[in-house]
Design brief:
By secondary structure, this protein is of the alpha/beta class. The strands form 3 sheets. Strands 5-4-1-7-8-9-10-11-12 form a 9-stranded mixed beta sheet, sandwiched between helices. A 6-stranded parallel beta sheet has the order 13-16-15-14-17-18, with helices on both faces. A 3-stranded mixed beta sheet has the order 3-2-6. Helix 2 links the parallel strand 4 and strand 5.
């Protein structure tokens, strides 16, 4: 899937929800709807922010900071609440402890906020509701009704499992754990998709976007097969603010006219970018553009077994031949890249299974792997010839191959066809198995050369 960035600069987005500031050594950090608004502004969107704050210095500082990025703040200041969500220094020593002195947002009258939204909503392309389950959006139906009256889409990000409060929204964004917690019984991934589609009907939603921090997103729509968009970089430096960046990119994209599929792909890229940053980071349109310049298909990346099964099934429906190979790739050499590029030409989709750290240590010995699993997977995922990357343990490799059933299983070791792990399952399913000669310098020799050089 190739993705283009729409023009974010012309978008006008109304944000409403819980507005909070956190404080580290007295340096304010924006949270919830405030951080979403900041992310939207950094992407180039024109933003109006509605919510309730305390009548305190933190509210004024928040207004000043957001106004400097051209966010139009429509705050209702109330002395009965606090803008500060949790004040502490880097040593986790309480500074204020003011939270118990203030009333929850659920007890505050929202009529004035709703009136302000009604007076301004028609000027916007999209409504974004950021709900941290603190009470500002304890009754979101009037806002959603106003959006419907003005034919404006509504995106919701909620920390609550009470989806009935957001009935009629266009898209609700949830974590995978939230989705699981909505259902009382344990579900595998395929069952989750079925149950999620029932939620769409039950709450009159157009779509759910499910995200897994560091593991991509899944778009679920009523009359469409689920769409898994994998991640490219699974290493997480800091996940603070990742949901706000994802939400802002999704909203800007839809407001600018992108399809839901394209917007979800761009949101997934944004999540990858922010995960590599420290703190509640924002991102820019330039950073997304740079990520897209790699030329990598946005449907490629690191996947789970259930996701891979779905992706392979979809590829076969398009008459795309799927190749599967494996390896440890502890030190990625030019020969490895050449080998993968060579076998990728045998079909249209290439799956690379990367052995986990336990398997590498068991086979290669102490001191291995040099690079841990997620780093090895990330490097493989960035190769243009590779579509999907999955991890495996030597003990379950047979089960993995039997589960996903590629069209062509390729082994690069000097081995008889009948001894290739998974060969029997692939052949029984009508597939092929090939053993390809692969000339490489043993990784152990490379490592020893480096150590001798030291």
């Amino acid at each position: 899937m190739q993705v283009n960035i729409p023009n974010f600069n012309e978008t006008r987005i109304l944000v409403a929800g819980d507005i909070m500031v956190n404080s580290y050594d007295a340096e304010p950090v924006l949270e919830a709807a405030a951080n979403v608004a900041l992310n939207l502004a950094c992407l180039g969107g024109q933003v109006s922010l509605f919510g309730i704050t305390g009548d305190d210095e933190f509210a004024q500082g928040l207004d000043d900071k957001l106004s400097s990025t051209d966010v139009i703040c429509h705050f209702i200041h109330n002395k009965l609440v606090s803008t500060l969500s949790n004040s502490f220094n880097l040593n986790s020593n309480p500074l204020g402890g003011t939270e118990e002195k203030h009333r929850p947002f659920t007890e505050i009258d929202k009529a004035k906020m709703l009136a302000m939204i009604e007076a301004n909503i028609g000027q916007h392309h999209l409504v974004l509701l950021s709900d941290y389950d603190l009470g500002t959006l304890s009754d979101a139906q009037p806002v959603i009704a106003l959006a419907h009256d003005n034919d404006i889409p509504v995106i919701v990000h909620t920390k609550s499992n009470k989806l009935s409060n957001f009935r009629g929204a266009s898209v609700i964004v949830l974590t995978i754990d939230q989705l699981r917690n909505i259902f009382t019984e344990t579900c595998n991934e395929n069952e989750l998709v079925i149950r999620a589609k029932e939620l769409l009907t039950q709450y009159e939603l157009n779509a759910l976007l499910i995200y897994r921090t560091g593991q991509g997103v899944t778009l679920i729509r009523t009359n469409e097969e689920e769409l898994h968009i994998p991640t490219i970089t699974p290493e997480i430096f800091d996940d603070n603010g990742v949901d706000d960046a994802l939400l802002a990119t999704l909203a800007c994209s839809i407001a600018a006219g992108a399809s839901l599929v394209q917007a979800s792909a761009l949101a997934n890229i944004a999540m990858d970018i922010v995960l590599a940053k420290k703190g509640a980071a924002t991102l820019s349109e330039v950073e997304i553009a740079q990520a897209l310049q790699s030329g990598k298909d946005c449907g490629s990346g690191i996947v789970t077994t259930e996701q891979l099964k779905t992706l392979i099934r979809q590829a076969k429906q398009l008459d795309q031949k799927v190749i599967f190979t494996k390896g440890s790739f502890d030190i990625l050499e030019s020969a490895d890249a050449s080998y993968l590029a060579k076998i990728a030409k045998l079909g249209q989709r290439l799956v690379v299974a990367v052995s986990d750290d336990e398997s590498v240590k068991r086979i290669r010995g102490a001191g291995r792997p040099i690079n841990h699993l997620y780093r090895r997977m990330a490097l493989i995922a960035k190769l243009d010839c590779v579509d999907w990357v999955i991890s495996y343990n030597e003990d379950n490799l047979q089960d993995l191959i039997a589960n996903v059933l590629p069209d062509l299983l390729v082994e690069h070791q000097d081995i008889n066809l009948e001894d290739v792990v998974g060969a029997e399952s692939v052949i029984a399913n009508g597939g092929e198995v090939q053993v390809i000669d692969f000339e490489e310098e043993p990784t152990s020799e490379i490592i020893n050369t480096v150590r001798l050089g030291d």
